[in-house]
Each structure stands twice: as C-alpha cells, then as structure tokens.
Amino acid sequence: MSASVTESRLTRLFEKLKEQDRAALVTFITANDPNPELFRQLLEGMPTAGADIIELGMPFSDPMADGPSIQLSSQRALKAGVTIDDVLGAVKRMRELEMDTPIILMGYYNPIYRYGPAEFAQAAANAGVDGVIIVDLPPEEAEELNQNLREHNLHMIFLAAPTTDITRLPRVLDHASGFVYYVAVKGVTGTKSADMTEVGARIAEMREQTDLPLGVGFGIRTAAQAAEVARFADAVVVGSAIVDIIADGIDDDYRPEAGLSARVLGFVKDLSDGVRTARSVDGAEA
Amino acid sequence: MADARNTYRDGPDEAGHFGLFGGRYVAETLMPLILEVERAYEAACGDPSYAKELASFNAAYAGRPSPLYFAEPLTEHFGGAKIYFKRDELNHTGSHKINNCLGQILLAKRMGKTRIIAETGAGQHGVATATVCARFGLDCVVYMGAKDIERQKPNVFRMKLLGADVRAVDKGSATLKEAMNEALRDWVANVDDTYYLIGTAAGPHPYPTMVRDFQSVIGEELRGQMDTAEGRLPDTLVACIGGGSNAIGLFHPFLDDADVRLIGVEAAGKGIESGEHAASISGGDPGVLHGNRTFLLQENGGQIKDAHSISAGLDYPGIGPEHSWLHMQGRVDYVSATDQEALDAFQLCSRLEGIIPALEPSHALSYVGKIAPELPADHLIVMNLCGRGDKDVFTVADALGIEMGGEL
C-alpha cells in the first residue's frame, strides 16, 4: 500500500506538536447540529478555543456505531435536511477564515457512495477537507473510496479497536494515513468510559508497529480524562461530551438558549488546557 | 447485464462479494468478530458431525422435511397451473426461520458463546431464536421495533414465555431496520461473549451465505419431493422477499436449472408509485447498509428511507445481496404485491385451503394468483408457504375493520 499523502495540513500539525511535546485535541461536532447558525459559530470558534483538529460528523439516518448522543445529533441535523454539499459548503466558508486547522469528516459510507466516491473526493479536496473517517469502511472495503482520496491528497483515517488483535493490526496499519484512530472502548460512542491503563498499553504496542501518530477516541468525556490520554497519545478525540452540551442547551424546536456557543467553546477550552498541560504537570511522562 | 455463466451457485467470492453486492461493511470493532464467525463456519462445514447434528435437529426438533402439498382447491379456483405449497409453516415455531436458527445456534455453541442477540420484524425470527436459546440454555436478547411489538403481540409473548429478553426499539420508524441497528450496537458493546444470530440472508459476510446454506434445505427437499410427486422438476417457484431468506433457500438449489422460472415477490405496501412500500429492487438503488452492499430504499442524498408494509416481516428497506446480484444477472424475476393484494390472498387461502398463511407468503400467493390462470394445467408452480398466519390475526382484523374485543 503506497502512503501517497506525504505532506499535508495534518502532517504539518503533528510535526509541530511533536516539537512542542503535546498531543492534539480533536473536537467532534455534527454538521448543522442543532441548526446551521449555531453550528457555524461553533465551527468558527473551535480553533481559538483550542481545537487542533476539527472532526465534522456527516449525518446518516442509520449511525450503527454511535450511541444515543450522536444518534440524536444526527437526527437533529437531518431534520434540517443537511447534505454532503452543505457539509462541504461549511468547510469552504471556514477556509475563508482559517487555513491552518485540519478538518476531517466522519460518517458512514452510503451517502458518499451515492454521491460518487470520485466526485466526493474531488469536492472534499476543493472545499479544504484534510481527511475522512468512514466508520463502516474497514480496510477490506475501503479501496473504492481510498484510491480517490489519495488522488486528491486526502487522508483516509482508519480505526483500530480493542478487538483488532496483533494479527489483524498490520492490515489496518497498511492502509492507514494521517493518523490511526484507536477506539478506546468496546462499544458505541459516548456510552462507556475508557480504561486508561488498558488503552495506554495498546498504544504502546501499536507504537512498535507504526510511525503514524496515534489518536484515541470513544469514552473520553472530561478535561481530566483528555489530559490523561494526552500523556501517551498523539491526539485526543472528544465527541459525545461536546454534543451533549448542545443537546442540553436547546429547546424542543432545537432553538439554542442564550450563551450556548460560549458554553460549548468554554468546554473545548477546558479540554484544550488539559491536553496542553498534560505532559508538564505531575512530572508525568509517557 | 445477464452473462452466459456455467453456474449461478458459486458465489460469493472470498471477501463475500456477489459481483458488486455483499461484502463486509462494518465498524472495525466488529471485523475481527465476523472473521471469527467465518472461520468457525468454515470449520463446522468441514466437520461431518456438525452436519449430522443439524440434520438430526432438523428432523426431530423442527419437523423436517416439510411436506409438499398439492393445493387442489386453489388450483381449481385459478383454473390454470397446478399449484403446490412447500409447507414450511408447519415447522416448529411456525415458519422457515427455525432452519437458520438451528444451524447458527449449533455454530454459536461450537464457538463457546453464551449470549445470543437477534433482530426481529414479524417476530418469527425472534421466536425461533428464543426457541433454540431455550433448548440450548443460552441467554437471549431480541431487538424489535416498538411498532412491530404493537402489531405482533402474540409473538412478543411467545418470546417472553421462551425466556427471551425482548427489547423495544422506538427510534425512527421503530421497525426491523432500527432493530438491526440496535442489535449491531449491542454486538459492538458485548463482543466477548455474544453471538449475533442474524435472521435473514443479509448483513456482513458470511451471514448471507450461511443463512442461504441453512435455508437451502427447503429447495433441496423440494427437488426430491417434486420428483416423487410429478417425476420432474417444477416449472415456476414463487417466494416472498423481505431480506429474502426463504426465497434464497427455495431458489438456490434450482439456480442452475435454466428451465425453472424463479420469482421473488417484494412488498409493494400501498403501491410502488405511492412511495410507501418495501420493494428494494423494484423501487430502490444500490447502496451500503447493515454490513452489505445491496439494493436499498434511499433518498437521493443516500439517507435510508423507511419502508412500509402491512407485513412486519417484509417491512425492511433492503434485501439480501445475493438477490441483488441475481436480479442484475436476470436469473430471478423480482415483482411485487401490495398490502391489499396480500390481504385478499390471506383470506382466500384461509377459506379455500383451510390454511391461514402468514401475511408474508400471502404476498407470494397473490402473485401466484396473477400468473396461474394464464398457464397450462401441466405447469407446476411451487409457492413457499414460509409461515403461518396466527401471529397476523390482529393486524388482519384491524385492516378489515374488525374489533377483536367486540363482536367477531
């Protein structure tokens, strides 16, 4: 497998953070959740609040790997009728303001398959997207999309799971690009807390097999947990905990209460503080 | 799209693809599990004691072989082709679903799994799963849409009597699609002890193949039975299709008999043109859902549409991948029947044959009624009567405007 994406916004970021000896904070929100206006405020505010990488959920009607929080956020976004073009449009607008923060899209394959893998890769690259995570495309089925992504210098980021044992791991690593996303729990998003000792051991094991940055997500809900992961991982992904703040701050018609975007971005700031100081406090070293 | 093939029975390829269709579109957490299921199934197929054990349970527990029955009153009624029923509704638990459940539960036991999960629509697969779990002493959790729980109450109670934990899924359309989403989420969260017993010939490889293999007992029996009855092969086989497990089980042993016409009947709900139907091939497009690429009901943006059918067992926006492939090959004809046509056939069969069929095969029977009158008397049609209708009496009463608590 040729790793054709050699230099990108994502690789430059990880280079930079390596020099700074800190992990990246990856924040997840679903496109157009709870409505296009608030989503836009959140997206535009993320870099300043401390997000190093923004992960945007592309809503799907049947998010089989997601727990209740992200299921509901997808439903809210779909109710407003969000499409792939809407998601890419939001990225494009963001790129008029901000060129440094990598943006990766996360979703399920059917909307992309329907859009056309080649058309999608081209449109995503044009919009300023840096990579994609497609939950239901394991390495065995990914080439149909990945060959198109490589052509446009886009990373296809693969998941490794607690069930991905040592014999299967090379299969995932062979295809991986950008970073490897380790799923910290056996479960769907937002439902269990990660066991840090176990996760740390798996990350150490994976380090022996790849030079790619290693991110950890699923089951990280607090700044303290984020900091704990940031001691040994190269990226920390927080999703459901952010989405839950949105869900708690809207009424039945998805109208946000006053100050909601500040509250969400304040939480991102807390996460970021945790991640940025993780390796300097308590003398903890990975 | 049809090409000249030596056989239609050699699929899928190693990665579980039937041409464009099938495959393994699941989250990485599940990949190692389905690879383990595949290895375990291959090992079981190579072990004669597994086949022997399955055959023994099929005979003494499920009641196989199911009879081949000449439906003389309906044959006379339609006044054309000679109509036979393959009586899979006489199986233990009342449908063909037990064929698959026995095969998979014996596999789960070999794998050392202690907890079984399943999705169910009409409840027939749920009941069959709960049954084999009771028999083999395994924990059983069945996911079922809240709407289906409402319309299939007798089956819900049967599952509970059998010791299953029936979990209502109230998301989205609250039917089979959502039940399958929840079952997949459960599996991701309980990977160590849990086996997912999928009920139809869909999902990630190896499920479509495995379920087909277990259901092929239907078609294999039919070959011998028809030879005994008529001394030859049947001319036309008809089966209803939701996910398509009873249909693929009936068709597969005949795929290479070019003279045998194969017809799959999808649920047209309120009519294909109404948009409220469950006919994935007649009214859908290729897409990816629930672990496989297949024909799906979907919007232009790739969001999955809710299906509609009076029959909870057919109320699913997809179809097994091998059917999608057989459709593209032109080997099987896929047609459809509406809610109303199924209701009419349901009542006709009850009155003329003394058999209350499930609403699912009532769709198939409705199509038999369309073609039989035009065919000669020596034309042999076999319809798979894949389930009995006891579970549907509430739904049918409701559709006919009869209050079950009142004057019947």
Care to describe what's here?
The complex is a heterodimer of chains A (286) and B (408). Chain A has 286 residues and is α/β, with parallel strands linked by helices. Chain A has one domain: Aldolase class I (TIM Barrel, Alpha-Beta Barrel), CATH 3.20.20.70. Chain A has twelve helices and nine strands. Chain A has helices at 9-20, 36-49, 68-79, 84-97, 109-115, 117-127, 143-151, 169-175, 196-207, 223-230, 240-248, 260-277, and strands spanning 24-30, 53-57, 103-107, 131-134, 155-156, 159-160, 180-183, 214-217, 235-238. In chain A, α8 links the parallel β6 and β7 (180-183). The longest helix of chain A is centred in the C-terminal third of the chain and has 18 residues, at 260-277. The two termini of chain A are 30 Å apart. The model of chain A has no long low-confidence stretch (mean pLDDT 94). Chain B is of the alpha/beta class. Chain B is built from 16 helices and 14 strands. Chain B has helices spanning 31-45, 48-62, 72-78, 97-110, 124-136, 146-151, 153-161, 176-189, 207-215, 217-230, 245-251, 280-283, 321-329, 339-353, 359-371, 393-399; strands at residues 17-18, 21-25, 68-70, 82-86, 115-120, 139-145, 165-169, 194-196, 236-241, 261-269, 285-289, 291-296, 333-338, 380-384. In chain B, the strands form three sheets. In chain B, strands 3-4-14-9-10-13 form a six-stranded mixed β-sheet, with helices on both faces. In chain B, β9 (236-241), α11 and β10 form a beta-alpha-beta unit. The longest helix of chain B has 15 residues, at 31-45.
